Amino acid sequence: MLAHPLHLRLLSKADASVTVLEDVKYSSMDGELVGVIGDTWDLEAESIPVSWHSIKGLNKKSIPEIIRALG
């Protein structure tokens, strides 16, 4: 199988059943894909905090519509 650069960064370091073939490469429009051998891939992504900030705040007239949409 070929792994995208993002997949390579997320591959579990503890998963000894996966072998990355550094010499097997394929250039794609998404980046350079690299050969990977393994029955399954364990990807470990660090969770990122989700937040939101409004520069102007909420329009008070919009609050009921937002509540209905979230309900």
Automatic annotation (TrEMBL):
Q: Known InterPro entries for this protein?
A: Endo-beta-glucanase, GH81_N
* Pfam families to which the protein is assigned, alphabetical: Glyco_hydro_81
PANTHER family given in the database record: ENDO-1,3(4)-BETA-GLUCANASE 1, GLUCAN ENDO-1,3-BETA-D-GLUCOSIDASE
The organism's place on the tree of life at top rank = Eukaryota
- Organism in which the protein naturally occurs: Solanum chacoense (Chaco potato)
Listed GO MF terms: endo-1,3(4)-beta-glucanase activity
Q: Which positions fall inside the Glycosyl hydrolase family 81 N-terminal domain? A: 1-52
Q: What is this protein called?
A: Putative ovule protein
